[in-house]
Amino acid sequence: TAARQMYEPFHKLKFAYAVPYYDQMRIFAGKMAKEKGAKKVCAMYQDDDFGLEVVRGAEDGLKDYGMSMAVKTSFKRGATDFSSQMQKMASEQCDMVIMGTIIRETIGGIATARRLGFNPVFLGSSAAYTDLIHKLGKGAMDGFYATMSTKQPYLDDASPNVSRWALKYKTAFNEDPTVFSAYGYNIMDIFGQAAERAGKNLNTDTMVKALEATVVEPDMFGSARMTFGPKKRLGSNETRLSQLQNERWVVVSDYTSMK
Predict the structure, then answer these.
(1) Across all residues in the chain, what is the average pLDDT?
(2) In sequence order, what are the residues at sequence separation of 6 or more whose Cβ sits closer than 8 angstroms to the Cβ of residue 89?
(3) Is the per-residue pLDDT at 259 higher than 80?
(4) Which among 66, 147, 174, 245 has most CB atoms closer than 10 A?
């Protein structure tokens, strides 16, 4: 998970692979609002720790640009009807909506907004960066932005390495790879590098010491460079932005990090 609890407070055995939701939204909420000329930024979020992390990051990101959240509306985990939330934000004339949502709620929320003729800029976190959004939501999801790092692999990817890897994956498992397949590949690659460095005397202490010295260079999925250390447990806080265009995720920004 991209929760800050994965590396805070410091723990010898905890190493974080994913940029925290809070950082993702703090980096891009205010930046996007300014670039899009948004006058009223609002939020729809899941009423739990995950949703609150997204909203808190967005609120602090807006403050960095001298802005504030205009309207917030929440829903309980498992909700399927988002009519009241979208009607509220439409009536408030929100022109940018932060989505503290995962998969089903992202699709349901945006689809409801489209039916209402409500079409603000929608921005979500890496929790909503998955091929299921466009596979299930189809063209109605086009235009949706999500923060991310590792790129969703497609069988016809422009990168020969990714395309080759994706085809091998499909041959092995009889299904298309997803961004979660890439996460798994990357995490095991990091583990493999550290285990190799630890050598034959592999135990908890040598593995920790090896991980602390591991430098992970950008990979074929475009993941950011990661470094760890004796007091550094978050690999990277650099994130970038993708947008759904013609039912496909397209990277639309360079990496940005917290100032």
Answers:
(1) 96
(2) 42, 44, 71, 73, 97, 113, 118, 120
(3) no
(4) 147
